[in-house]
């Protein structure tokens, strides 16, 4: 395991941390009411965009299963961005629905990144002599 493997692991761990943070922030915002929640949406949109770009940047450094999980995470992150954008433009039930969808996609993206981390670790342990 050289320096490159360490950087790849660090990049994947960073993506996982950012998706988990995004999920937590959306969950916290969803617990608020009215204007307080709307004020958080601009920041959430930026976090979602940053997490998406980070995941996209990490895909090329991964192998097979981890790459597929990251690609799935990007799909969910892009949907999260879309739902947050819809939330910014809506109110009432449409707003609540968009926030619920954003939360569900953020949760799914965090899960997919965790699966990518597990796949990466599994691949590394399979290569390591016992």
Count of DSSP H/I helices: 4
Mean pLDDT across all amino acids: 86
CATH class: Mainly Alpha
Radius of gyration, Cα only, in angstroms? 16 Å
Question: CATH superfamily membership, which one?
Answer: IL-4 antagonist (De novo design) like domain
Number of strands: 0
Q: Major β-sheet, in short?
A: none
pLDDT < 50 runs, ≥5 residues: none
**Envelope shape:** elongated
- Helix share bin: over 70%
CATH topology: Four Helix Bundle (Hemerythrin (Met), subunit A)
Structural class, from helix and strand content? mainly alpha
Termini gap: 15 Å
The structural domain count equals 1
Task: Tell me about this structure.
With 130 residues, this protein is an all-alpha fold. It has a single domain (3-127), classed as IL-4 antagonist (De novo design) like domain (Four Helix Bundle (Hemerythrin (Met), subunit A), Up-down Bundle). Helix content is 90%, strand content 0%. It has helices at residues 3-31, 34-59, 64-89, 92-127. The two termini are 15 Å apart. The model has no long low-confidence stretch (mean pLDDT 86).
List the keywords.
mainly alpha, Four Helix Bundle (Hemerythrin (Met), subunit A), 130 residues
Protein topology:
Layout lengths: L2 H29 L2 H26 L4 H26 L2 H36 L3
Write a brief caption for the model.
This protein has 130 residues and is mostly helical. The chain contains 4 helices and no strands.
């Amino acid at each position: 395991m050289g320096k490159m493997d360490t950087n790849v692991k660090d990049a994947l761990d960073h993506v996982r941390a950012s998706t988990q943070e995004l999920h937590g922030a959306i969950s916290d915002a969803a617990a608020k009411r009215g204007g307080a929640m709307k004020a958080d949406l601009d920041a959430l949109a930026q976090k979602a965009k940053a997490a998406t770009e980070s995941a996209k940047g990490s895909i090329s450094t991964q192998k097979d299963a981890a790459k597929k999980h990251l690609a799935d995470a990007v799909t969910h992150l892009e949907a999260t961005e879309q739902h947050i954008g819809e939330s910014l433009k809506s109110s009432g039930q449409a707003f609540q629905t968009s926030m619920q969808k954003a939360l569900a996609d953020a949760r799914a993206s965090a899960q997919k990144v965790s699966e990518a981390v597990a796949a990466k670790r599994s691949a590394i342990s399979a290569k390591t002599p016992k």
